Amino acid sequence: MGLAGVGDGAVTLRRAFTDPSGAGVIVPGMKLSGLLHRSRPELPGLAGTARVDKRTDALLKRLKPGDVAVLDQIDMDRTTADALIGAEVAAVVNAAPSISGRFPNLGPEALMAAGVPLVDDCGPDILHAVKDGARIRIHDGVVYAGELELGRGTAQTTDSVADALVEAKAGLTHQLEAFAANTTEFMRQERALVLDGYGVPDVDVVLENRQVLVVAAGFDHVRELKKLAHFIREYQPVLVGVGAGADALRAVGHTPHLIVGDPSDVSDEALTCGADVVVPAFADGHAPGLHKVQDLGASAVTFPSSANPEDLALLLAHHHGASMIVTVGLSATMAEFLDRGRSGSNASTFLTRLQVGGTVVDGRVIAQLYRSRISTGALLLLIGAALVAVVAALLMSQAGDAVLTWVTTTWNALFETVRGWFGR
């Protein structure tokens, strides 16, 4: 077999045969350009660049639109799901069960509602089989690299997630029993902090007799924060960002006065915006992430406690005398409360809410009070009725003809002026 002849920019493939007499016979064949450009059939399924990390928080920071998130998170919570949706991932591959049945967590339901495919319970080996940055394909619950199968799991659907949530409600009894035990242990260790404010650090920002707005990265926190624009403008509350909540405040045009949380969850810009920074610490004083603040040249104080950062922010505001604490992104319902998947820190939330009592108000309630009661349609109808009344009054009065003549003349002059601008 050989190559011979070049015509019209294309190489022509010819097959050479040998006839009985020994002479070579050249038979025209197909063009080589057709072979070179012929693509193989497109493989079925959804494809994207894999981003792999066992640490969910670290993975969320690296995601880009169109990526396939490969993670290992049992009982995926709503906050993680919202972050995945916000990152515009093409699909999610979970090594662990997204709904284990312990309690009805909200994450998978959020992914289904947003139309994000979820391949569930693929096993821990998927984290090693899929290489970070590699191009992978998902089809019918199977993860491929090209045509090579890397792992398989359950392709969740809206119906399958709904059925799993119904079964998971049976696990609430065990979760509440564990919660009661954790609450007792937390109270034994942290009663001085919760009841008397022992260990609450001093901060430069004045909180006494002030309204305080605490923003955490929770369910729909950005949209809730935007609805509080009128409240913030009118009352000028102290703005407290918990972790990524500090960046949420900056994203809507506000500068936080106080930041509470692990600095690794906060951008450098927020940490250096002039806010007081409070870093949670262990009982021995070690505060993860404190070095980041110091490297940026900013100052920070530590808050030793086993409570979660959201509760530390509430206790800080309460024990410094805040008159009202408005929360955004913090757990409010039983489903949200259990959904966080941190049974150890949920005990601090329960006791903190009991301690701060009536000073805490959910931001959704404040937004509801500020919502306009007059619809746009009703307002337009009111304006139209007023214009009709004015025109009728002018027609009935002696000065009506003169006013209408003036309005007509002014309108014509304005129309001619505008037409002259565009007619040049």
Automatic annotation (TrEMBL):
The chain crosses the membrane at residues 378-397. It comes from Pseudonocardia xishanensis. Keywords: ATP-binding, Kinase, Membrane, Nucleotide-binding, Transferase, Transmembrane, Transmembrane helix. InterPro entries: Put_SteA-like, SteA-like_C, TPK_catalytic_sf. NCBIfam families: division_SteA. SUPFAM superfamilies: Thiamin pyrophosphokinase, catalytic domain. Residues 366-415 form the SteA-like C-terminal domain. This is Cytokinetic ring protein SteA.
